[in-house]
Amino acid sequence: MSRAEQREQTRRALLRESRRLFAAEGYGAVGLSQIVNAVGVTKGALYHHFDDKTALFRAVLAQVQEEVGRRVAATADAEPDPWDQFVAGCHAFLTASADPAIQRIMLIDGPAVLGWNEWRAFDEATSARHLTDALTRLIEAGIIARQPIAPLAHLLSGAMNEAALWLATSADPGALADTKAALTRMLESLRT
Hints:
- The structure is a single chain.
- The chain is mainly alpha-helical.
- It folds into 2 domains: 1-50, Homeodomain-like (Arc Repressor Mutant, subunit A, Orthogonal Bundle); 52-188, Tetracycline Repressor, domain 2, CATH 1.10.357.10.
- It has 10 helices and no strands.
- The chain has helices at residues 3-25, 32-39, 43-49, 53-77, 82-97, 100-114, 116-125, 127-140, 149-169, 175-188.
C-alpha cells in the first residue's frame, strides 16, 4: 500500500470512528484521545488530517449532510410525478432525521459546535438545496402558486428540522408516522 493510500485509509478511519463516537456520546463528551485510541493512531496522525476536534466534527457533519441529501434525492427520484417526488423527499428527510445518530450530529451538535451560521450553510448546501430545487420545479410546473422560493424553502426546512428534533424526544412509537401525515397535510395546502 502506498503512503498516500495509508494516509487516506487513516483519514477514513478517523472519520468513521469520530462519527460513531460523536453519534453515541455527543461532541462534548468525546475527547481526541478517545478517537485516536479507537483508530489506533497517534494524535499527530489526527492533526495531520484535521486542525482540531472542531475541524474533525465539521468533516463528519459534512459527510452526514451529504449522506442525508443523497438519501432524500434517491427517494424523491424514484417517484415519477413531481409532486410525489417532493412529498417523498420530505418524508425521506424526516425518516433519515429520525435516526438518533443523524439527529445528534446533524441537528443537535451541528448548530451547537459550529454556530448557527456555519451550520445553516451546511444545511443550505445539501438538504435545503434539494428542497429549493424541488420547489422551483413545482412552481415552474404550476403545481404550487408562483411565489418567492427562498422564504418558502426556509419555512419548510425549519419546520422539518424542528419536527426532527421533536421526534428525537418523543417516546411515541407512532410519532414518525404521525409527523409524516401532518407534514403531508401541510404540503398539500401549497398545491394550486
